[in-house]
Hints:
InterPro entries: CBS_dom, CBS_dom_sf, Diverse_CBS-Domain, DRTGG, HotDog_dom_sf, Ser_kin/Pase_Hpr-like_N_sf, Thioestr_dom, WH-like_DNA-bd_sf. Keywords: CBS domain. This protein has 16 helices and 24 strands. By secondary structure, it is of the alpha+beta class.
Amino acid sequence: MATKHEQILKHIDGLPVGEKISVRQIAKVLSVSEGTAYRAIKEAENQGYVSSIERVGTIRIERKKRENIEKLTFAEVVNIVDGQVMGGREGLHKTLNKFVIGAMKLEAMMRYTGPGNLLIVGNRTNAHELALQAGAAVLITGGFDTEESVKKLADEVQMPVISTSYDTFTVATMINRAIYDQLIKKEILFVEDILTPVHETTFLKTGDRISDWLKYNRETGHSRFPVVDEQMKVMGMVTSKDIMGQEDTVLLDKVMTKSPMTVGLKTSVASSAHMMVWEGIELLPVVNDAHILQGIISRQDVLKALQMSQRQPQVGETIDDTITSQLVMTDNRPKGEDIYQYQVTPQMTNYLGTISNGVFTTLVTDSANRVLRSYKRGDLVVENMTIYFIKPVQIESLLEIHPRVLEVGRKFGKVDVEVYNEGKLVGKALLTCQLLDRS
């Protein structure tokens, strides 16, 4: 039987797109406490099919497909620009196709403005009206209002008119940044992308016995299974080590590992890989917020996913990508040594004009990863990093980074990294990395 939390989520998911949602209304309809209703609405917001907007309320929006994540809804635009909705609230759930800057003559502006667009413009009432008639939404910059007739038209065509105190350039930058951030998120692999779903997962119940484990072990060849209760909540994990030397009639909840490590659907694959390596775990149950089993992931699933993602072209560049792309190996270096160079650019400095600690850490980590890969193919997870010291390094300085492998084994590596500027030692660190075999 579904929990109250799940019943509320199912109810919200079944509401029409654009419907207004309130804690009190949900609590009354489903006969639950307002606290339970509030938590479920927040979960729906996290899952991307509800949006809360100041001075408007909470509305049901269209759930985004993963491949279309770079598109924003008008509700999200309101939040991004700290806007106020002047009219057309019923259209806030709709998706923005593209935005147009209204810095041209009216006729030219309308040639670029079509259905699903967002016209960013100042206090030009004629442009507001024509954009709405063309099926576009309007974002008025500079904190200006618009005519009542325009607000009425917005309500009729169900396309929002939004006002923001920011100027046009700032607004365009903010929206571009939001789209860019979502492009980066799109590239990050989550557990939900690679899991074996629950209907394909072999699991055991708390009332089962060791004889049931033996039966599933013979049928599947696997030795690790999640153990769930009647509501499908994960209560434990049972492995061959747990049942060793036990009678076949012993209940699993007497021998299983209770409160096992689990991951959520939105846990990143990289984070799961680190957890598996660090704890020496081969298989993890995947659960939702109510701790209900959603499926499993294995170490093999995680490694395959990480290898695939490394072969994909990057669309949105992260700060780490920007830093590491400028880290290049020097031509004049002693044979058998890896020495890298890096030019400290203005955006890589702190408020004092010296190299940022975060940039230094990224340089050290990436150089250590590169030198370890020359010893052993595979994926790496930094387990421990000790930074002994960092001296101030000015803008435009040319750094030389010397990573040196101290020790490398089958499953770990230790690297000493020294950083020089004009022949002087300005930083030193020691890293220990876990090595993940690609088998």
